[in-house]
Amino acid sequence: MKNSPYPKIGIRPAIDGRLGGVRESLEERTMQQAEAVAALIAAELCYPDGSPVECVIADTCIGGVKEAANCADKFKNSNVGVSLTVTPCWCYGSETMDMDPHLPKAVWGFNGTERPGAVYLAAVLAGHTQKGLPAFGIYGKDVQSATDTAIPADVRGKLLSFVRCGLAVALMRGKSYLSMGGTSMGIAGSVVDPSLWEKWFGMRVEAIDLTEFVGRMSKGQYDQAEYEKALPWVRENCPEGTDYNSPATTRTRKQIDSEWEDSVKMTLIARDLMIGNPKLAEMGLGEQAHGHNAIAAGFQGQRQWTDHFPNGDFLEAILNSSFDWNGRRAPYVVATENDALNGAGMLFGNLLTNTAQIFADLRTYWSLDAIEAASGKKFTHPLVGDGILHLINSGPAALDGTGEQESNGQPAMKPFWEITDAEVEKCLKATTWHPSITEYFPGGGLSTRFRTRGGMPATMVRLNLVGGLGPALQVAEGYTIDLPDDVHDALDQRTNPTWPTTWFSPILTGKGAFTSTYEVMNHWGANHCVMTCGHVGHLYLTLASMLRIPVYMHNVADDRVFRPSAWTAFGTADPEGADFRACANYGPLYGKI
Predict the structure, then answer these.
(1) Cα–Cα distance measured from residue 109 to residue 130, given in angstroms and rounded to the nearest whole number
(2) CA distance 257 to 241
């Protein structure tokens, strides 16, 4: 096995420990189940670099506490970040269970009547619940014969959802959020709370002053060769659009050219601050070469930086995209205005899907009547209820957000290894770059403009911090919407025309905040949101339960919600309330506040 830098999935084949005929008859079948799950995971799931997710299987089946301890030792030495127990039979519950409090855990008890795998599942989940170590229970709906080694579709779905979310937990652990600058314009989300990242995500917060950018730019402390490669690529692939500044505030061609140059330098510096760069060590900058081990970051920008220097729009948009002058690559996660709470949502979405994320203001609810009043045109759409939401913001709306990538004939945002060169070109051509509005950004800079193609299944999320409660998540599945050009222009031109737009319609359920699109807007907890491609709200809910973050608003169907079995002990008639009670009971994954 290669020495992968990523955490692995640990598979624990549990078995009836009685020697003398019982255990011997089950050894091969139990290990087959573990191997089948490992094969499924490797075939279906990828790490952020596109390589298959790796599994580690215990050296022996686990029939008692000694073998459980041996397995735990192997997992510690093998960088295992997720624990999955599988069995076709009865086993000794508390003797065979995984006791690591920080590993996300699940148990698949085979549904077969010849051997009571389901009985073990119930017993061991009771043990997990009693000991305060929540685990996910996986149990197929249909009975299988003891010799059937196939993984049913419902079991397969739960296995993959659990591993995706557990892997996201493991990938965050030990990393950093890099706060580049401080609080932007009094936005609460950019008041970065270290305890959130430490207690709930197992991460640390690193912080630098934005004078670090000034110093590195003035001293040339970036890869000069890469800069010389990047600048011509930008000039060729990032076409300028209309300058919407008034004659009195229009900046000179020389000034805008200088802003382009600084924007490219800022991009290189921000990336180096996040992950380091060995080229800096070759320049004698050994300390700077290390970076901050950041898996996510935020750039303050407004106003202390943007009053004097180019804004971070290019920096954020390019880093958050799945490609740049070096070709296709994994997107970075960089939140505009240093909104670390939106940065957390972006990080969740990126780790769950391996795709770029759209950062946006949740700017406006447009009712159908308001659309007609503003545009003079009636607008109807089969995916739209009472209106649509306008998602718009400068900066980190990744260029993937144009929707110029496709999956099964629909607009999509895909993992970088699935994106074609032609799709990269389409994303670039669908984007124009506009001199920023000088009144907003006296220091200049370039802003992205595009319109997301309609018909993309999408999920909108927001993580909020609530005084006295802690973090809480909102989730809204829906679709991006195409508006006729004249209707789009009538609405879009009413706000900043230099920023990218996504028209979003949430799926309405007739209940709670999802009785109408207006109520979705009215219940949203902050000015910002994240949009992830795909209907992946169920993954967000599962991940939130692993981190012990309650979800107080979602439109995910009940049969898609997958949480630890212990959650049912906190109430079955009111799942939302039970989620809050369970999260409060267990507290954040990495320790009580």
Answers:
(1) 19
(2) 14
Out of 206, 361, 404, 423, the active site residue is: 361
For residues 75 and 10, is the Cβ–Cβ distance under 8 A?
yes
> By CB neighbour count within 10 A (0-12 exposed, 13-18 middle, 19+ buried), where does 261 fall?
middle
Q: Is 477 a catalytic residue?
A: no
Once rounded to an integer, what is the mean pLDDT over residues 528-546?
A: 98
pLDDT, one tens digit per residue, over 429-447 is: 999 999 999 999 999 999 9
434's enclosing H/E stretch is strand 432-435
Residue 584: which pLDDT band, with cuts at 50, 70 and 90? very high
Taking residue 290's Cβ as centre, other Cβ atoms within 10 Å add up to 15
User: 456 near 406, Cβ under 8 Å?
Assistant: no
Per the CB < 8 A criterion, the answer to whether 266 and 212 are in contact is no
CA 536 to chain centre: 10
Task: Supply 301's token pair.
Answer: 């920008």
223 given a catalytic annotation: no
Q: Which residues pair with 296 in a beta bridge?
A: 177
C-beta neighbour count of 569 within 10 angstroms = 16
Q: What is the 3-state secondary structure (H, E, C) of 316-373?
A: HHHHHCCEECCEECCCCCEEECCCHHHHHHHHHHHHHHCCCCEEEEEEEEEEHHHHHH
For 95, the token pair is 């003797």
Q: Pairing relation of β-strands 105-109 and 176-180?
A: unpaired
Phi then psi dihedrals of residue 180, to 5 deg: -95, 95
Name the DSSP letter for residue 196: I
The SS3 of residue 38 is: helix
Angle CA(68)–CA(71)–CA(77) in degrees, nearest 5? Answer: 145
Distance CA 48, CA 46 (A): 7
Query: How crowded is the C-beta side of 491, counted as CA atoms within 13 Å?
Result: 30
> Which residues on neighbouring strands pair with residue 82, listed in sequence order?
9
Question: Angle at the Cα of 528 (from 190 to 544), degrees rounded to 5?
Answer: 85
CB count in 10 Å sphere of residue 239: 11
Q: Of 272, 337, 477, 492, which residue is the catalytic one?
A: 337
pLDDT tens for each residue of 278-332? 999 999 999 999 999 999 999 999 999 999 999 999 999 999 999 999 999 999 9
Identify the CA nearest to 148 among candidates 121, 115, 124, 119. Answer: 115
Q: How confident is the model at residue 145 (pLDDT cuts 50, 70, 90)?
A: confident
71 φ, ψ (degrees, to nearest 5): -65, -45
The model's pLDDT over 394-435, given as tens digits with 9 standing for 90+, comes to 656 899 999 999 999 999 999 999 999 999 999 999 999 999
The tokens describing 195, both together, are 């305890």
Q: How would you class 383 by CB atoms within 10 Å of its CB: exposed for 0-12, middle for 13-18, buried for 19 or more?
A: middle
Which residue bears the tokens 């679709």? 479
